[in-house]
Amino acid sequence: MREDFRHNMREGRERWESRWENRSKNSHIWTGIFILLIGLVALLRTTVPDFPNWVFTWQTFLVALGVFIGLKHNFRGFAWLVLILVGGAFLLRDFYPHLSIGKFIWPVVLMVIGAFIIFRPRKRCGPKEGSRMNATAGRHDSTTILDEEESWSQDDLIDVTAIFGGSKKNMLSKDFKGGDIVNIFGGTELNLSQADIKGRVELEITTIFGGTKLIVPANWEVKSEAVTIFGGLEDKRSIQPGDPTQEKILVLRGTVLFGGIEIKSF
Q1: What's the total number of domains in the chain?
Q2: pLDDT for residue 8
């Protein structure tokens, strides 16, 4: 009976993950719907005299943008939540001018950041369920707060968090499998020039008021599926033709808010 219960739970989780995966593949639909709704609201504001002014404000835009990013990225990370909280806080201030919420913003933001670091799901790579291998084996974990750090690692996975500080990581693995990078008022430099990948590898990057510098071999293909808001992504490499028989694709996911991603090669 216990095995049947585990089997049903496993099937339910696989269906849920498949549903979200299909939704993420149709992310262009969410983008189109978001732009369509903005146009519809602008049209209503022009044609309807009594249309509420607060609907077409930057505060409402932040809330809508947060919902959009959450839906598009399956509510991974926490950039979408920050946008909703900031936009919602300023909306409340407009509706209730006598309500002093400014003193609550930073404590709430810090609490959200702390909760995210504690509870955020780690990228799962390697053996799937049923394997006895330790899921955290070969993972390089690092958290830097109000400090600068540089290190070398031969691990296959990376998990870096930089808050009000900087982190430099030099990966030597010949089977790099990706990982997670979180920058909050900080930056991370990830050197992959001496590493290697096999096939398609995903790197999740969440940056709030910070930056990420990636140093990758020129023959790697880099695809960006990250959302950048008041930021950008710049590939400064001199692209060289790669070996068509050896596919090496680094996919960048995540959210960049008031920050940037820079890609270079030696």
Answers
A1: 2
A2: 62
Which string of DSSP letters, residue by residue, matches 17-55? HHHHHHHHHTHHHHHHHHHHHHHHHHHHHHH-TT--GGG
Residues 6+ apart with CB under 8 A from 122: 136, 139, 159, 180
The answer to the question of residue 13 being in a domain is yes
Burial class (CB in 10 A: 0-12, 13-18, 19+), 179: buried
What's the residue count for the chain? 266
What is the Rg, in whole angstroms, of the alpha carbon atoms belonging to the chain? 21
User: Mean pLDDT across the stretch 64-90?
Assistant: 75
Range of the domain at 39: 2-119
Q: pLDDT (tens digit, 9 = 90+) per residue, 144-165?
A: 555 566 666 667 888 888 877 8
Which residues, 6+ apart, have CB-to-CB distance to 189 below 8 Å?
166, 167, 168, 169, 212, 213, 215
Residue 131 exposed, middle or buried by CB count within 10 Å (0-12, 13-18, 19+): exposed
pTM reported for the whole predicted model: 0.56
